[in-house]
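Late entry, written up from scratch paper. The run itself happened at the end of the previous shift, but nothing got recorded in the book at the time, so transcribing now.
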Amino acid sequence: MTDLIYKDEVYMIQGCIFEVYKYFGNGLLESVYHEALEREFGIQNVPFKSQESIEIFYKDKKLTQTYRPDFICYGEIIVEIKAIKRITDEHRAQILNYLHLCKKRLGLLVNFGSYPKVEIERKIL
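Output as recorded:
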């Protein structure tokens, strides 16, 4: 069995996610969870950037469109949040595309809309 990449960092991020879910539960808008998670990252001293604009290139030409991941934590881990009934293959494909665009290896797909607990899927590129 291989070691998990960014094990300690993911542990800290998950702790923040669990804290937000413990406080709010499910059923709110994604924007509420996003703002609460920003605050919790600050409280727990998890370095993050929120919705930072990432350039997209097509055949070495920059597009006018950009991508704004919900969070990039520790400069390396994309955290994409949802507030939906269940995660689908389209959401999984989305985070893999984001990892490719951002040239990152690890992403966390987080669903605050699930019940009875928050869903967190770890995706590696």
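The chain has a mean pLDDT of 94.
(Scratch paper discarded after transcription.)
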